[in-house]
Protein 1
Amino acid sequence: MIDQHDVNSAASGQDVVARRSRIHFRGVTKAFQQGEKAVIALEDMTFQIFDQEFVSIIGPSGCGKSTTLKLISGLEFPAVGSVEVDGQKVTKPSKKVGFMLQKDLLLPWRSVLRNVTIGLELRGVPAKERDDKARHLISKYGLAGFENAYPRHLSGGMRQRVAVARTLAVDPEILLLDEPLSALDFQTKLKMEEEFVRILKEERITVMLITHDIAEAVSVSDRVLVCSARPGRIKAEFEMPFSKEHDPQMIRGKPEFMEYFNALWQELKVDVTV
Amino acid sequence: MIAGWQIGITLVALGTWEYLVRNGVASAFFFGQPSRIFAYLLASTADGYLVKHTWVTLYEEILGFGIGTAVGTAFGLALWWSPYLSRVLEPFAVVLNATPKIVVAPILVFWFGIGLTSKVMIAVLICAIVAWLGAFDGWRNADGDQMDMVRAIGGRSWDVFSKIVMPSSLRWILATARINIGLALIGVITGEFLSSTQGLGYLVEYSSEEYHMSQTLAAIVVIAVLAMVQLHLVNWIEKKLFAWAYEPEHAMEFIS
């Protein structure tokens, strides 16, 4: 039985009473200027993400998913409505929030070590401490020996792992992921999904994942939100029953997996135009 | 083998030239003669005459290049802080870029006189304009997502500038420097043509006025050598500093 919630109901999200709200979008509307026209990216976008949840947002291209990320990061501000992190309106980038994009954003002129330490540098952490922490993370994510390599020496999967190390080096409590694995080949992507989920659950990070890959969304999330076509708003919400498993590969193998995949696709495809 | 051909072609060309002059087919008066050019180079290097003039030109060029590039680059990068001012200045930049900067050389000679200063100023002006445009272009190509990342991770504007804008512009700036050093040499020599008592440009001008073709060509040879050495130097620096920008190397070679 597919567990779909009425998006506007108070029962949205697991154990609402017990969990605290980490991200809250209330009736957010945001527009951009594109050449001569004003484009409304999001209209009346409302959703909440609770502590330690792993929530995916899927939606057609151009539905404003990346805008959502910028709003939570404090790089942009809503025209109408409010974006709150931990109950506070977002006025500037928060130290609690990290993000990763499809591009690894590694600085090509810096070594792997120095790429990982950049966040720590910006927070004034002394050199020895930040190098030690970086080395620890580099080793933890399977890149030992490559501290002095440069991004050009690394494969796509390795580069994304450096990006993970960089992002987690500053201990974010909330992580925003904008299709971080979609530039990788399928096999690397599957492996990275496993690693990612394991790491994020271990560190108990609250995650918002933006993805085009429905299978990915189903296999890693606690909840999946479906975004409508532009102007974007959340039009459907599904609770995933598998998330206790923590193993995306196993989840993909379960019979219910396809039911959820299809339900999501039915909801999504209405808005996909070719 | 290719080198063999190259050396061969050079020797044949020089040999033919020498031969034609010696046998009266071509006039040394109009075309100069390789053996005389060579002799002149030896003699005037030995007595220091050539060295003195080469040094003057080099000094003017390096000083002008240095100051001009530094000032232009600083100004170009500083515009990152004001997108508004950048938009205001953009059409001026386009006009300046299109105009051959050398046209102001006579004005600068008029203002700064016959000595070294006017030549340095020509190089400064040319290099400053080109460097400004190079730096301006350089930061416009900096990666917006990298800048967002730095801001989101806790950086302020100065951090974005020093950690993203400057390093990513550096490559453009160096490419511009390669052009600039050539332009500086042209500027300085042109200034010497117009009015001077020293330098390689002066030698070319003076020797040709006195109809000493071989001496003129000798000075030109020195200028060519200078230009080549500079070019190689800039290329070498670029390779050293910017290894990170080139083709991915194999990860396996790296394991330390």
Protein 2
Amino acid sequence: MAAIQIDQVKKRYGTLQALGGVTFSIEEGEFFGLLGPNGAGKTTLISILAGLNRADSGSVKIMGHDVVRDYRQARSLLGVVPQELVFDPFFTVRETLRMQSGYFGLKKNDDWIDEIMHNLDLTNKADANMRALSGGMKRRVLVAQALVHKPPVIVLDEPTAGVDVELRQTLWKFVSRLNREGHTVVLTTHYLEEAQALCNRIAMLRGGKVVALDSTAALIRRISGSQLEVQLAGEFPGSLAPLLSHPAEPGSNKYVFRIADYADVEPILATLRQNGAQIEDMQLHQADLEDVFIEIMEGSK
Amino acid sequence: MTGFRTLFYKEVLRFWKVATQTLTAPIVTAMLYLLIFGQVLEGRVEVYPGVSYTAFLVPGLVMMSVLQNAFANSSSSLIQSKITGNLVFILLPPLSHWEMFSAYVLAAMVRGLAVGLGVFVITAWFAHLSFVAPLWIFAFALLGSAILATMGLIAGIWAEKFDQLAAFQNFLIMPATFLAGVFYSIHSLPPFWLAVSHANPFFYMIDGFRYGFFGHSDVAPGISFAIVTTFFVVLAGVAITMLKSGYKLRH
């Protein structure tokens, strides 16, 4: 059974089509990335599956439970870390986590609350008021709140936006552990290297539609080869122009070649040398998710 | 049940943590009303035979405090949660619309009744009160607080900013409570305003509540009770329908 099954979901705000018939499913145990530029519909989709918003048509099921008709089961199986940094200023960290447990129907949850706090480095802030915490600490509490009921499906909506390196590492260590223990994880992020490192499968959204859906490895393979970037002093030999991945910008002395193999590098360098062009700087880029992302987003315009 | 209990507890804890503002302040305000109006009008106005003006005023002030604070609790809690965004913590868990309704309304009733009790305990020193029918006192206090708690819930769901909530409070709730016979018997009004007062459901809450003390009222308490109960059922129906449909909350 799919952890999340999204079927023909449409959502419109006035004249804006936020989601135009989105269909895909996420299997149990996956670490799934939901990528796309701002306004692509990621947060709208997450809001619909969390019950914070309702689709105009189509259906979403969490482990087989419809998020509208069967909302109690669906919501108890889902833990969502919202994108906005929200908190209730009336309470301490521990009170917040105890109350969140209570909303999910859990009474004696302190052992698990302690474990979450330990894993997110929150233990020494347990009795601090939410108002007194730094942004990063508040973000940790948001993550902890989403996990109080040990949800089999965890959704993180840009959890690392504006977050320091330490928290990012703590967070990914903990979330990866939960994923290894069988929790399904869905992640949206603008940090593509993060998605590349963590996610086994990725969906890309643009303008409310799925424009790519594949395993991370298969997506990266779509862009074959690498790029050689050189910065030259002197004349650029015209004979090399067909090898450029895109025409050089006027006034710039930076040139990017597309190469299929490392063996292609030497002939280019030889031609440059023979034409008296001096290399000021040189870099070799392996194609990564960012290249794929840019290509797909450009291509779907 | 745990979900409901937790939300109820959270709502009570929320106003308890700022008790100066949510409990003490309204009690002091009611006391000021009693001191000023009681001082000015004592001996000049006798609404019911044998009942001093101050004694007449006390139940009205108690009920007014119950009503205003019940409304303030549910409405301000919701609008704050909506504007700061932390309402998401209540929308994400599997809380049903019944649980949300009962938790918000009961917690607001607790605050309304706590303030009412505080006002009563303090103002009762200033007047000689009787308790002819205590059951009516309880019945109208409970129903009145439940109605205003529900209205606060509806206003809190509907309002998108503090300004809209303030309009609801100042142009609807305040006039309706002040013009419901807190400070006077509506029988002292000209016929037109008497008729208007009969269309104000708040009037029946205060009139029935006062009957419990003095055994006198403008309308028979049974009739007031029926009207107030009907009003509550209708409002509760509206609030639950709003919560169930996700109106403005899950937009």
